[in-house]
Amino acid sequence: xxxxxxxxxxxxxxxxxxxxxxxxxxxxxxxxxxxxxxxxxxxxxxxxxxxxxxxxxxxxxxxxxxxxxxxxxxxxxxxxxxxxxxxxxxxxxxxxxxxxxxxxxxxxxxxxxxxxxxxxxxxxxxxxxxxxxxxxxxxxxxxxxxxxxxxxxxxxxxxxxxxxxxxxxxxxxxxxxxxxxxxxxxxxxxxxxxxxxxxxxxxxxxxxxxxxxxxxxxxxxxxxxxxxxxxxxxxxxxxxxxxxxxxxxxxxxxxxxxxxxxxxxxxxxxxxxxxxxxxxxxxxxxxxxxxxxxxxxxxxxxxxxxxxxxxxxxxxxxxxxxxxxxxxxxxxxxxxxxxxxxxxxxxxxxxxxxxxxxxxxxxxxxxxxxxxxxxxxxxxxxxxxxxxxxxxxxxxxxxxxxxxxxxxxxxxxxxxxxxxxxxxxxxxxxxxxxxxxxxxxxxxxxxxxxxxxxxxxxxxxxxxxxxxxxxxxxxxxxxxxxxxxxxxxxxxxxxxxxxxxxxxxxxxxxxxxxxxxxxxxxxxxx
Length: 526
Description:
Elements: H1 3-18, H2 26-54, H3 70-86, H4 97-104, H5 118-130, H6 138-141, H7 159-174, H8 187-203, H9 214-224, E1 230-236, H10 243-251, E2 254-262, H11 265-277, E3 285-289, E4 303-308, H12 341-350, E5 352-363, H13 371-383, E6 387-392, E7 405-411, E8 419-424, E9 430-432, E10 435-437, H14 440-452, E11 460-464, H15 465-470, H16 492-519
Parallel strand pairs: 1-2, 1-4, 2-3, 4-5, 6-8
Antiparallel strand pairs: 5-7, 6-7, 8-11, 9-10
């Protein structure tokens, strides 16, 4: 897709969002827009598969089948059996997106041909979820549309008002060709990612709950896939909308399995939709909804790549019972209740395969804070030697917070076991409106420096472990990367001449003021 096509698509999508703007805030109308896009995708993918694979020899189109006839029922039952196995869900001909759009925007005075679709649409979304019950895909579709409240008064005061708004949105979506039939196109997935990013920007503080900016996602994905093109499994313990998992798939030729866990129910639904929209088969992803630290869901997982942007300095229970948990028991101390940052690090390392790489975004405080965090940091470096690199990022690149952050890269089997790479990329960015933004050249420089593992003046430093030990395992980047810029030398003689000239000018000014004061017969101010 060209940049011009992409821009036009983004304009169309944002125009659809304008239909709901003013009625509700960004994180609320997000659920409607993305939910309807997902319904359109499921419907069109279903039609393509059924017509091109199952009914090709029958010379009949699925959307033309009459459901009430005996022949129609036979076709539908056969299609249902095949699609539940292949696609993981089922739609009747009358439940297809194109049929609902047609009905919602029909104009007829015949009441038997009413254009009221709210009830139909609600039933369709419920039927999609119910069609998967008892099948392999049940967990992936269960309550997937629960955030689409078609009875919300924010859509309109009356049922008629709500129907008009929903029909208008669906009609707008119907006019967009997402090129689903083209196997090389990821137009729909890109559109979905674009909208998630736009909603994150508009939602402000809440945005960090579900979205990592693509520039940061790129860096994390490139770090864990460095020199690898095939990844057996990737895991994100705080997966949000799933954008990090999908970014890893873009950086590798093949990812066999995706794992994720997300605490927020709405965001968990977004993540599952996002995976399916990017054509990740339901058998290839396993995303769960729960508190990752308190109730982990992937207990036996050992992932080859792990990425995460957990909530910064989140609170957790830090229950003494966790001292018997395999994730934390070996460290001797738990991360403090008020700052779970190292608890996420410990959790991720527990699930990291011996040949794996993990990259996690954290607040700068993890690099130097003492007490329990200092103890854990020392253990990870001195006793386990897992820390591979520390990368400082610019401030104000995440939605909802302006604090400076860093990326910590960990490996269990390091190729450079005698040193730690420090990169200070905090001054390499461009300002875009109210956010700082990492440009492609900034991302490339970080990744190239990581791969080459070199010292660059005022940018990176390869510190041997003895240096880190001398610093008492304090990882604050300025201790290793000197970014101090010398000021230009001052010419003392020139400054003295300027001061003498200023004294002369001041004396002349004082004389003029004194003369005015004498003429006015008032006291001089000096």
